[in-house]
Amino acid sequence: MHSSAPPAAPPRAALPEHLQDAWRRCQRAGLQPDSPLPAQPDSDSALYALRQRHRSLLRAASPLMARLARQLTDCGSAVLLCNADGVVLHRLGPPAFLDELARLGLHAGADWRESRCGVNAMGSALAAGRALTVHGPEHYLHALRQLTCAAVPLALPGGARAGALGIVGPCRHRQPHTLALVQLAANEIELRLLDDTPGGAWLLQLRDDDEQDCRLVFADDGRWLAGCGEGRGRFAALGAPDDARHFEQLFAAPFEWWTQLARRAPERRQPLQDQLARDWRGCLRPLAAGGDDVFAPPPPSHGLPRHLLALTGGDARLDAAARRALRLVGKDIPLLIEGETGTGKEVFAQAFHASSPRRDGPFVAVNCAAIPEGLIESELFGYEDGAFTGARRKGHVGRIAQAHGGTLFLDEIGDMPLSLQAHLLRVLQEREVTPLGAQRAQTVDIAVVCATHRDLRQAVADGRFREDLYYRLAGVRVRLPALRERSDRAELCQRLLLEENHGEAVALSPALCQWLDTHPWPGNLRQLRSVLRSALASREHPDDALDLRHLDEDAPSPPRLHLAPSPDGRLADIEQRAILHTLSACAGNMSAAARQLGISRATLYRRLRGAAA
Ligand SMILES: Nc1ncnc2c1ncn2[C@@H]1O[C@H](COP(=O)(O)OP(=O)(O)OP(=O)(O)O)[C@@H](O)[C@H]1O
Hints:
- The structure is a single chain.
- The chain is an alpha+beta fold and 613 residues long.
- The chain is built from 26 helices and 19 strands.
- The strands form five sheets. It has a five-stranded antiparallel sheet with strand order 2-1-5-4-3, sandwiched between helices.
- It is globular.
- It binds adenosine-5'-triphosphate.
- Keywords: ATP-binding, DNA-binding, Nucleotide-binding, Transcription, Transcription regulation.
């Protein structure tokens, strides 16, 4: 875009009727064509909150936006998505052009409403409720007259306004077919929004001889709830969802029969005639159970600092654990985190550290199960120059001393050898550490957080863990719920998918949603993340919705491995057989086997050691 004088507006009569209306609205609102664009709010946290609120729209639109952006690579144009208030939720396009737009104040989070920015395609499409193009001088404000833009309003399944999709580019790149491209993408987004209708409803997918797709949604009792794009248009003659129509008023077929059929053969298309005697092939399927969980806003978690808050997607148990931990912040009372492998104990410990006044100090993590027993002592306490044969010349600062001023995280504390437990107890009591071979003790100022997947009290009862150390470490205990127990599983899947897909939303098939929701997840979040990561990588196209077929062949089977029969049925034997089976399937590759079992490599080594003992 260049900075020469803006092109003059065309005579009003030369504008199409709907743009004349838009110009009149701006005049009535008192906008001056030569006034600058209003200053736009630009806050990351406000944008984050806004995107959270509109995540179902973003999830439906992102793949289509990415596809459009690829088609437009050579035109130097950008694809924009606004919410129903005209605020930009997402932009994709050439970085140089996006920067130009941002310099005009049109960044993500900016408000394009017609009443603020004058006639423009996004704002005016929303104001007029119709698809339209605004080219160069047709913009009301001079500041926008070097742009050309086409936009289409988007509707929610019930017909309410969801937002608008648009393509904006430099004026010299006007493309006559841009509006048609946006319209096609908008139709597809509306279809995808249907997938998000809460459970307890049925989706009827219809196809006619021209292979035109229509989708209609019905409640359990057959009431017509929604239709989208073609779905609304092609059935307009028979009514609208708001008219409380019933399936049987649209089709010459009993709804009950269709739902029974759908339960027996959900994928099969059946011939179906509507009340206008048009022939379709239709397929009825239940909408994803629990789909509403994904879109319900998380219950408020007021008062939790940002890092801990980021962990709780609304699960009451995790929320309570975070609150309990938070009461310790700054009080030097040790925290003991319990939970199965992969439940996020280390991530929780890091969030605790980041929420504490020690956040600028070090966070030092030691996995007591991963360090060979003979090395734990020197690793933890350090040693002086020449303390023992093979020691490094200049000695070694132990992990405890490294944590000075910050937090020491002792993972798998239940695996600490008894001989070292007394030594650790002294450090905790005296807040001093004496490296091996040293004459003098050093003072250390540390917060201590420990984690274990074992039952430490049982270990105390069995004499494997010192009772006095247990009470030193377990100042406050929190238990992290297993993934299968968490009520925010759907939310968590979405969050991990966004993270794994570099911030781009991904659509999930209902079958996969259901599988994700009901899988027992023995490896918890670690396993979920790795399953999602490999599923994303196995898609043919980045726009493809994730489906069961993208799972590793073995992904659904770990629970079967754990349940394999063993001669005497003991749990430890079953576990060991599962481990050995997986190891042999992975040709002895420890990392691959650990991934497949959904446990960490350290846990796998530990289990093997346990099995060999
Ligand atoms: N709140 C979270 N949000 C997103 N991902 C998480 C979260 N918590 C954990 N994860 C993922 O799960 C993986 C395992 O987390 P973490 O290492 O903290 O678990 P752990 O309980 O300490 O496991 P182990 O007992 O095997 O040491 C992490 O690498 C991270 O990818």
